[in-house]
Amino acid sequence: MSLIEFIKSKVFWKNIGLISIVFISILIVAFIGLNFYTRHGKEYQMPKIEGYFVDEIDEIEGLKNVELIVMDSIYTPGEHEGKIISQDPKEGAMIKKGRKVYVIVTSSKGENIPMPNCKDQSVRSAVNQLTNVGLRIGKFIFNIGDFNNVVVGQRYKDSSIQGGTDIQRGEEIDLVVEMNQERYTTDMPNIIGLTEPEAEKKLWEASLNVGNKEYEGKKDITHSRVVSFSPNNSSITKGTTISIKFMNDTKPSYHDRVRSFRMVEPVVMEESATNQIIDEFE
Question: Are residues 118 and 25 in the same domain?
Answer without folding.
Answer: no
